[in-house]
């Protein structure tokens, strides 16, 4: 079983494990990550094994400085400006892989692009101290909701990894926003913890939404973030044997007979709702209700990422694997 170690003072222990090629779960501002030395193929392979993740699905390489980022990828001027503005933070950029990049090819699943992010908090400190990039997907078994607390990670992956660094609940709660600059366009590959509007204010043009269509981020398959219970969206009433995931001050009809009710944000605050999303899906799932009815959540700001994750949680579970 994984040791759960408080983040204060955990850097040295984490470095010892990472240098030995082990996988360590670490907090970032978005969700917990399952981290390994991105230059060590055996270590990166252990990430895929621990998650049960298909090897064709590439990982994000996490950095702690532009100096480190420049060794891994080629930045166009717009991507550089966005890195200056939003790093460290919940923004991931897909960029051309640098010619002599030290990343192991398993990180990029052999693609000629790499997804880069500079995380805030313990993750950033750890990478700076290690002096190497860390490959890290969200810390969850493939297809399950991402871990947003050390306990959630330990419950899901604790028997497969040696250590979970406990930095408390993650402040953002949904994964990073993923973009890619292509010609003069900026593609939104995954809505996430940095609202699209914040990026648009800097680039002075609308993001081009590519998710939902052709799969460009290989992890963006429909069924994903799946709890065991069925998930029913935009519910205005609660059906028998359903639990209710609420949002805002007004309740759906029949809420009083729900098998359980959790409110993402009583006051309708989307930041609070993002922070609570995954943990509340997991808690309602544990009640054993037949389905989770979800009240409507507005789509602006962080609401885009929340609705994206909810739609994936509600998507049909085809036998075709869900990944990431
Ligand atoms: O907030 C986050 O982004 C968290 C924390 C730990 O940093 N990480 C995370 O990683 O959510 P993961 O692996 O669960 O999701 C990363 C997504 C996957 O859908 C993957 O397919 C996509 O990024 N991706 C990685 N490399 C890519 C590339 N070169 N081109 C397109 N998509 C890529
Ligand atoms: Mg993930």
Question: TL;DR of this structure?
Answer:
The chain is α/β, with parallel strands linked by helices. It has helices at residues 11-19, 41-51, 66-72, 77-86, 122-130, 150-157, 196-203, 270-287, 303-314, and strands spanning 3-6, 24-26, 33-37, 60-62, 91-96, 113-117, 134-135, 163-166, 177-182, 185-190, 208-209, 230-232, 242-246, 261-263, 291-294.
Q: Can you offer a commentary on this structure?
A:
The structure is a single chain. This protein is of the alpha/beta class. It folds into 2 domains: 3-209, DHBP synthase, CATH 3.90.870; 230-314, Threonylcarbamoyl-AMP synthase, C-terminal domain (Rossmann fold, 3-Layer(aba) Sandwich), CATH 3.40.50. The chain contains 9 helices and 15 strands. The chain has helices spanning 11-19, 41-51, 66-72, 77-86, 122-130, 150-157, 196-203, 270-287, 303-314; strands spanning 3-6, 24-26, 33-37, 60-62, 91-96, 113-117, 134-135, 163-166, 177-182, 185-190, 208-209, 230-232, 242-246, 261-263, 291-294. An 11-stranded mixed β-sheet has the order 1-8-2-3-7-4-6-5-9-10-11, with helices on both faces. A hairpin with a 2-residue loop joins strand 9 and strand 10. Residues 212-216 and 319-323 have low confidence and may be disordered. Magnesium ion binds next to loops.
Keywords summarizing the entry:
324 residues, alpha/beta, DHBP synthase, Rossmann fold, 2 domains, 9 helices, 15 strands, globular, binds threonylcarbamoyladenylate, binds magnesium ion
The CATH class designation of the largest domain is: Alpha Beta
* Beta-strand percent range: 15-25%
Question: Would you list the SSEs in sequence order as H and E?
Answer: EHEEHEHHEEHEHEEEHEEEEHEH
Number of helices: 9
Main-sheet strand order equals 1-8-2-3-7-4-6-5-9-10-11
Bound molecules: threonylcarbamoyladenylate, magnesium ion
SS content category? alpha/beta
In quaternary terms, these chains amount to single chain
Under CATH, the homologous superfamily of the largest domain reads: DHBP synthase
CATH topology (fold) name of the largest domain: DHBP synthase
Structurally, how many domains make up the residues? 2
